[in-house]
Queue: 2 jobs
Job 1
Amino acid sequence: MFTVSQTSRAWFIDRARQAREERLVQKERERAAVAIQAHFRSFLRRSQLQKDIRKEIDEFFKADDSGSSKRSALCIFKIARKLLFIFKIKEDNERFEKLCRCILSSMDAESEPKVWYVSLALSKDLTLLWIKQIKDILWYCCEFLEQLKPEILQDSKLITLYLTMLVTFTDTSTWKILWGKGESLRPAMNHICANIMGHLNQHGFYSVLQVLLTRGLARSRPCLSKSTLTAAFSLALRPVIAAQFSDNLIRPFLIHIVSVPALVTHLSTVTPERLTVLESHDMLRKFIVFLRDEGRCRDICESLEGCHTLCLMGNLLHLGSLSPKVLEEETDGFVSLLTQMLCYCQKYVSQKKSNLTHWHPVLGWFSQSVDYGLNESMYLITKQLQFLWGVPLIRIFFSDILSKKLLEHPEPAPTQPASPQNVLPVKSLLKRAFQKSASVRNILRPVGGKRVDSVEVQKVCNICVLYQTSLTTLTQIRLQILTGLTYLDDLLPKLWAFICELGPHGGLKLFLECLNNNTEESKQLLAMLMLFCDCSRHLVTILDDIEVYEEQISFKLEELVTISSFLNSFVFKMIWDGIVENAKGETLELFQSVHGWLMVLYERDCRRRFAPEDHWLRKDLKPSVLFQELEKDRKRAQLILQYIPHVIPHKNRVLLFRNMVSKEKEKLGLVESSSASPHVTHITIRRSRMLEDGYEQLRQLSQHAMKGVIRVKFVNDLGVDEAGIDQDGVFKEFLEEIIKRVFDPALNLFKTTSGDERLYPSPTSYIHENYLQLFEFVGKMLGKAVYERYDGDIADLGLTLSYDEDVMGQLVCHELVPGGKTIPVTNENKISYIHLVAHFRMHTQIKNQTAALISGFRPIIKPEWIRMFSTPELQRLISGDNAEIDLEDLKKHTVYYGGFHGSHRVITWLWDVLASDFTPDERAMFLKFVTSCSRPPLLGFAYLKPPFSIRCVEVSDDQDTGDTLGSVLRGFFTIRKREPGGRLPTSSTCFNLLKLPNYSKKSVLREKLRYAISMNTGFELS
């Protein structure tokens, strides 16, 4: 327990401590109050002082205008010093404007040194203060320039004022004080100007000019006047010229000035004399020397990012087009820097949209941020980029190739399709493309041809790398680039001749071995091949048959034969050697380029032959070997079928296709076997409503049922079931008839092209109810026809970027691009217009119809099954051979019953009637009468199942019980049981059987047969 004295003591101490703390708090409060009061008094005093100064400045500028020019420089200096002391941009912008006008007015005074503001620089007491003041004033001018908008009239006037201030005090040429006797002072004054300019550069002078120029020029029409643009560009040049083009100033000049969108275009239009200054100082050469260094170029690109790197490229290309002599001397450096810039942009080009990509009108999907403020000037930037693939630059870059003469060509080939007899001999130079070359290790030996490490080859390779990089980077103007590169007719053939001369012997092996060498040299050689393939593919794609076969633009036909042989071998080797299986990146791009060019040539040859017979086949690839590899699921065999099935004979491909179908039928249980029978679908079809009944009864069938057995019972026009049992023959007749009807243009599901009358989906097919379901049904019927081995009979320029269509009597305008009806077709966009119209007519306009047709076809026929056929081959697969019936082939594969034989009198008459008396159409009707198909089988009558048969009959079909010994003997010895003159020939289409009475006269046979085949009433003739 505490005592009373101890408690009192503790209480006393605690009370003293509290009192002490309260006194300290009170002192802090008093100090804070004094500080606040002092600060507030200071604020009030400063505010009052600022008001007084501003009032004084306003009174200074309110003086009469007539006397303002007479004010002494010292007065202006003092008032400027006061303004700068209290200067705030928002409050004092008008005062600063008046100060600048006052200073410029003093500089214009005549013969009054005391009035000239610059005269203070000569005063020993004021020189340093004046220099600091003018630095501050000029930097405030820069800050205002950074904020002003040149499209606003008032701001435009202020921009002119502040630029005039900068122009006046960064160069001594307009200083009157230095005229005459003051000329001796010019070096010292120039030093002061350089000091001022250095100060501005340190604070970001080039950034200010970049903002100003971009705001004024990053648009389709510049809003900077000639004087403004001249002043701004002159200011930009002054530091660079003063520093004698040092790297430290060339770098910011490139980053901030030369990267302004379409700057050179606007300079050439508004103030072309500024470009003369650039040329007089040889600026382009200095830019090339600076940028050809890889490190410097990468630094510039990283500072600018992709969008503005394109702007820099465009301006450099425009400068290059204006200075061809410089480019001729600095080609290597210019090509190098352009390639590096494109490679930098390419790193960020994406093939598809994602959360990390942005759309760029030239680069496509781009993973860097996109400056959408450049969109308005993108048209001009693109026009600048077009200099890269313009004729002048191409002539400069490819001068080594274009200056050489090709070997003399023979006379053009005949205009008719080439045959093995009229194919022209291949030039000896081009033959070298197929000779074996040494390994890559031995390429450098000077055995013959061009050494791969020679200066000439390296130069051409670098140029090809540049253009190939531009194709993969500038994705949205790829067609423009290809069109430009193919403009000169002699470039591609001379480039091909150059390729053929590479290495000791030139040729295929050289490029194949480059695939296995990850060296820079190999990449460049392959880039050359890719560029050649991409350009040639583009050219031949847009040329018509007259230009290819008659005029033979760029390539002679014998050159196309040689090139296609090279490409065929190259692609085959890439696949067969396993290079394509795991290809990615550059190797995959190479394969796509070479394969694309190959297929264009192959498809062109399929339409109209220029190559010899069996030109596309690989003699070293046996079909049996390929089929064995397919059985083992080898990837390379599958790739052969996917990419170059034409290296296998057509007959073997058809057999392979049928084998695939047969295997699937077995797998699905659609084949008759001892253990099970396939499910059969029965349908009844009225001949008068064949399409409607077929559509209603078949459209709901499942994919499995469509592939299965379908039996048809026809009902004639009288409502009576037709005679005959469907054992596939009636269904084949149904298929041919229904396909013929849906493709009839009168139905308006399909239309025909003018001239060759080829079918395509009708854009106005929507007038039919459920028209898309009808197209799907057509696809199913086509698929079923191919699945069952049925060979059926399937048979202006505008002024704007729009397409006008007459729809049900009304004119409908379709814009090919947004706002296309207001965009005129010009020389610049006419190629794009052609592509847009073709894409609209053959894709956009009939997209839904085509998709519906394909959706009906593909469930029955797998895409990989038909990928092995070209377009004409697929047409033959669907429609059968479009050739006349080969009677000799039919006769060779005919089987006779009932006493008939090949030398029988009636049989001899039959073949003679078919050959001599029947027209081709009647022979087709005869074939349809017997087989239900009007065209011969794809591979000939040897593949008709069951085989074509002719049987001698003595009685009508109702009384026919089959062949007996007596009937066979009577038929064999031409003994008639009774005169058959009143009976007509009949047929069993399910069995491809012709039932022919034993006629006594050839004329009777001809008459009865012609009547029978023309009736087209199925089994009812009996």
Job 2
Amino acid sequence: MHAEKILEFGYRHQFITLMLLSLLSIASVFGIFQLKTDTSYESFISENDAGWPIYSETVKNFGSDNTTIIYIKDEKIWTPEKLLELENLVRDLESLEKVEKVESLFSALSIRDEDGFLNINPLMDIAPYDQMEADQVRENALYSPLVKNNLLSEDGKTLAINVTVDRSQRDPEFNLSFYKQLDELLVPVEKDFDEVFQVGPPRLNVEIERSMFEDIRLLVPLSSLFLFGTILFFLRTGYACFIPITTSALSILWTFGFMGFAGIPFSLLTAIVPSLVIVIGSTEDTHMLTSYIHGLDDEKPDRIKALRFMVKHIGLPIFITGFTTAIGFFSNALSEIPLIQNFAYAASFSMVANLICTILFVPLVLSRTGPLKNNLGDESGEPTGLIGKIVKLLDRVSDFHGSKVIITTAILLIGLGYASTTVRVSNDPLSYFKGSNTLVQNADTLHDTLSGMQIFYLTFNSNKDHFFQEPENLKVIETITDILREKENTVSKEGKAFDKVIALSDYVALMNREMNEADPAHYRVPDTRREIDELLLMLQRDDVERFATYDYSKVNIVVRHNISDSHELNVIRDELEKEIRPLLPEQITYHFSGENLMINRAAESLFSSQVSSLAILIVLIVVIMTMVYTSFIAGLISLIPNLIPVIFNFGIMGLLDIPLNPGTATVAAIAIGIAIDDTVHLMTRYAEICRRETDQQKAAKLTIHSQAVPVISTSISLVLGFSIFAFSNFQIVAQFGVLAAATMVYALLSDLLVTPIVLRSVRIVGLYDIISLQISKHILESCPLFENMTPYQIKKAILLSQLHSYDENHVLLQQGEVDRKLLVVLEGKVEVIRQSDGSETKLAEMGPGSVIGEIAFIRQGVERTATVRTLEPVQVMSMEWESTKKGLRFYPHIAAMLNSNLAKIIGERFIKTTEDLDEARKLEGSLAS
């Protein structure tokens, strides 16, 4: 079934179309009821990440790293009353389901020398009874390096309660429910303290969900408003606004239903799909409406006639662009990050849904209630108003500065191409938010006052019992701990990389110091196994379970930091590995582990998946465009205006230090999928115009004139639509929107400036045009110009020429004129006459398949020796020397066959002329005798 037939289905079978649209919408409603929300950490980590087994083993040995830090600040926090309230809070936290451990001043140890004796006790089992006892607890807490900047700030006015939960089973709903439990406990506490908040994975998930729905409430109406404005401004009819809003609404409904049935959750990225549908889906509606309005007859407007005009002109481009846009989104499914994969599935489905909805709904509505007034003028005429001024400027640039445009573009491509090599990757959930977000501000406050909310483990495994009770082995851990503690942030240059580092060696070193009358020189691991064993015997298993296994064959270093840029953390981790590896004996293996690190590691796959998705998309587009326009050159040309925006995008990212993250990683593939839309419409229109216009430069100019309104209006609509995402609560969504908007600008300029310059150097023929061209079997079999050519090659040769229709008694060639035109009669009859002394002599009558004017075609400056005039309505194929030479240079096989046949025709006619002359001489001789 042809594309035109599919587009006609909507208005030819209106009842079936309405039923189909209704049934799909009703079914989608049931799917929506199954739609779930997922903002968990797991959606940021590849399911195939090699770190999962190591992470699971680490959690099993040393406990979970899913820790929420409750921040409590008060100028008078060290009063018995406030400490009692905090004790009650700690007990309530310990009673919560799934809580693995609660670390606070009520569980922390006080390790201190008192009158020559080592005192190891909890800082406080219960809240102090009086102020003196409270002051003593405060002094002991500030004295301990294990407590300071971990559970208590240096000024003693801020303390932390670290709540670690069991995450042995991955449940996307757990963090949300746990946050609510904590929040309920903190509400009554907030009124009695200066500042109280929680930070950690549960809070992060809640902030993502809250911000998602805030975005939807803001961005969807804004997208609709901008869509209304741009369509109304460019198409000059309020009616045009109704159609894209309706198709977008239906597409969104179907997409949400699909997500529910397919188990695709509502997430940070899928939340922007509704706005994307409104912004992107409206482009084809605009092209269809523009074509429909151009098809209206000013004197006798007819909706069905206008619809047929629309279907004929944009049928195939609609399907090509819909497919490539969907492929652009779907190519992101190559990413290993579930968040991006789900977005790719949902967004690509939404584009397909929008295509189906558009081709069914738009013709149906236009056939019933479409406008009957053409506000845009003749399609072949120059556009007016603002777009008219833009087109005139483009004409001048193209005519007089074409080479400068190409040179400037090439220079920019080289410069920005180099800048694109500096783009870094990042995938930290905290960096998804803007700096103004309260969670980010709270995390910074925690970092400045205590230690950052981010946690990872560095574990060491010897596979030998009591291995780390040996002094030489524990000293290695002590050295590595010191390296971590002193590690500078070599990327941001903002001082120390980590806020707090705690290991088993710290407990042993602190006890050793206090055993030696608090002498700082003894803050180190002892030199003998006996001393270490004696010190460890003074500790309970609960005190060090996060730092060593019961048999001391494995140890763990807990690191807290505030690095929210995964690129920074990955660089620092790589540097650490180079420093750590030489220090370790051969029998010790080590691993960095933690959900945070796996999320960061997933960032490394962003680049490779981006390259893969772009490569696949580019190959698909070249294949599709090569098939559609029957030329590999045409396929490559279609890429030029679409690769330029991609290179510009990555170059700008490099210059502005915008990272490749789950938001920005999707821009390039999406941009190609969308930008190809205008390119397809331009190339299709150019191919149509070239069939009647021999001057390819003029054809390129007319192409821009006819497509300026839809191309510029849809591009501006896309730019404004994507710009709306700058108002998102999420930094990565805002970056996505701004970059996508900028890329649409690059694509528009590329299509309007570069594409015409490239197009005018080539002739293209559409596959559909070849298939649909009706040529009589007689011509295919008998025309000498097409001898030994396949029907496909013949049709392509005809379409690479100009097709003209003329009425009866029209002069096709005039005797005495000089031109280089070859004609092939396709339909009708013509006569060849010679004019002499005011009289005409009919030399021949020619019909379909006849070749006329071959001598003047191949030789410059030859006058026509006869006049060719139509005897009835005819259709002829016209080949002009210069345009044919240009048009066939990318089709050498067809050109060679035409030249061979043309030479044969000329040779045969030369022989025929020679024979006729011989006959004439013989006749003259016989008459003379």
